Amino acid sequence: QVQLVQSAAEVKRPGASVKVSCQASGYVFATYGINWVRQASGHGLEWMGWVKPSNGKTDYSQRFQDRVTLTTDTSTETAYFEMRDLTSDDTAIYYCVRGYQIVELPSGRRYYGMDVWGQGTTVTVS
Amino acid sequence: QSALNQPASVSGSPGQSVTIACTGTNSDIGTFNLVSWYQHLPGKAPELMIYDVRTRPLKFNRFSGSKSGNTASLTISGLQPEDEGHYYCSSASNGDTPIVFGGGSKLTVL
């Protein structure tokens, strides 16, 4: 079945960087985008960005575009999320989510329909 | 605070129906039929239940979605104990972020 398996929890110091992996299985990795969504304690879900494995094209939330880099490795069917200059506000659960749908919005941005989620990776900044 | 407003908690007895509202604005729910609902059960990854306002996978045949104006709704019929968990709505948006979420609603089956 379609599955996304993420790397283990991380503990980082303020100012450090973190890299989270997301290994896909059960489908053709190159044909679906991967979104990254986070959930900070006491907050709802927040979309951070999207990457297309077939060509590496990315789309970032304006809020995170200066600190986040999304990449993929099609040979291992793995997506990566990297975030720099961490603060305590970045303590959260980070999810990778398969993108099954792309819709062009009137704003010029794109909406990414999301279906299959990874189990989440807890990143603690302290 | 989340872009879309959901009640923090809802509850119902087994066999009953409950409805969870998700209120947005005319920049998101009011404009787009791109509303999704996700189920997050304890110890499991979140799962897509409803997309495009009302389309659902066969697995979620007790769940239905609708929309009126700036508010989307998820109705769960025939509540079962295994439905306990968190439910999140999302929508496309013309705002700063193209995808916005609700804060989540915790469903308790009494």
Q: What does this molecule look like?
A:
The complex is a heterodimer of chains A (126) and B (110). Chain A is built from no helices and 11 strands. Chain A is mainly β and 126 residues long. In chain A, strands 2, 4, 5, 6, 9, 10 and 11 form a 7-stranded mixed β-sheet that branches. A 4-stranded antiparallel β-sheet of chain A has the order 1-3-8-7, with no helix packed on it. In chain A, strand 9 (92-104) and strand 10 (110-117) form a beta hairpin. Chain A is globular, with a radius of gyration of 14 Å. Chain B is built from no helices and 9 strands. Chain B has strands at 9-12, 18-23, 35-40, 47-50, 63-68, 71-76, 85-92, 99-101, 105-109. Chain B is mainly β and 110 residues long. Chain B starts with 8 loop residues before the first strand and ends with a strand. In chain B, strands 1, 3, 4, 7, 8 and 9 form a 6-stranded mixed β-sheet that branches. A 3-stranded antiparallel β-sheet of chain B has the order 2-6-5, with no helix packed on it. In chain B, a hairpin with a 6-residue loop joins strand 3 (35-40) and strand 4 (47-50). Helix content of chain B is 0%, strand content 44%. Classes of the chains: A mainly beta (126), B mainly beta (110). The A-B interface holds A 4, 35, 37, 43-47, 61-63, 95, 101, 103, 105-107, 109-120 and B 1-2, 4, 32, 34, 36, 38, 44-48, 51, 88, 90, 92, 94, 96-104.
